[in-house]
Design goal:
Elements (H helix, E strand, L loop, with lengths): L2 E10 L3 H13 L4 E4 L6 H10 L4 E6 L27 H10 L1 H20 L7 E3 L7 H13 L23 H13 L7 E3 L9 H7 L6 E7 L16 H9 L1 H7 L7 H6 L1
Helix pairs in contact: 1-8, 3-4, 4-5, 5-6, 7-8
């Protein structure tokens, strides 16, 4: 079995700085996929970027925290803050989803609205993942995976990061990872064998990426980053080294290492 590689950028559509970095990393570097936040201010610009770069595999970055909903806040009051943005207290919202049928109904409506908004772009949907990996919550996963299957989507990120590739990567998520793999299979969704990017989120430097790519085992590995041309834009995560992550995707060592693997989007690599 060969080693196949997906190089993905999260947060397409979050800001012009993110969009510009994604386009440059795809055209000049090793980026093969990106995940679109359909409710964010630069989403339309991100869709235009995808249309002029048809080899960039674009999927849905389902956003249910730290972002902007598609539905009017009045229709999803349990999911949002007074300012109309999604709640940032992921544990509190997760508890509400676990115990409240009304909260789950609001979640189903917003998830369906985000899938519909992606479909309205006319872009083929290469994959599903979620902002801050909120689909690790079993209620969110069940609703999102069912909606993905209804829309004919066949690939999803399940964020298992092996310690063999990333020293210090945690094993605490393993029970949830196994649950999500079973749930994904039930809905006909496939996932990469492993993901690299959790422990180094916001700090995936050129040296780190150049080190990990030559060590990829057989199977499908997704590497994901958060590139932007600069930090400090609205919606930026404090402390993220956005420009360094863009530099990683453009680094000559990284380009040489990536060239040793078949690369592409989720759907292509998982079907190979």
């Amino acid at each position: 079995m060969t080693s196949r590689l997906i190089v993905n950028a999260d947060d397409l559509g979050l800001s012009p700085q993110v969009n510009a970095a994604i386009e440059r990393a795809h055209r000049e570097g090793v980026l093969t996929a990106a995940s679109l936040m359909v409710g964010e201010p630069a989403a339309a610009e991100g869709v235009g970027l995808a249309r002029r770069n048809p080899r960039l595999a674009v999927g849905l970055h389902l956003t249910l925290t730290d972002g902007t909903p598609i539905l009017p806040p009045g229709r999803i009051p349990t999911l949002v803050q007074p300012d109309g943005r999604f709640r940032d207290d992921m544990a509190g919202l997760g508890l509400a989803l676990a115990i409240s049928g009304a909260a789950r109904a609001q979640l189903r409506a917003e998830v369906a609205a985000q899938f519909a908004a992606f479909r309205a772009t006319g872009l083929p949907c290469d994959h599903l993942n979620a902002h801050k990996h909120y689909h690790l919550h079993p209620v969110i996963a069940a609703i999102a995976f069912a909606e993905a299957a209804r829309h004919g989507i066949r690939a999803v990120r399940i964020p298992w990061e092996p310690p063999s590739l990333v020293p210090g990567a945690g094993r605490a998520l393993l029970p949830m990872i196994l649950l999500l793999r079973r749930l994904a299979a039930r809905h006909g969704l496939r996932a990469p064998d492993r993901v690299v990017g959790l422990r180094w989120s916001g700090a995936f430097t050129p040296d780190r990426l150049a080190d990990v790519l030559p060590r990829l085992p057989a199977g499908v590995t997704e590497v994901y980053l958060h590139p932007a041309t600069e930090a400090g834009f609205p919606g930026a995560a404090p402390g993220y080294r956005y420009a360094e992550e863009l530099a990683a995707l453009l680094d000559p060592r990284v380009r040489a290492a990536a060239a040793r693997h078949p690369t592409g989007g989720y759907t292509a690599m998982l079907a190979a």
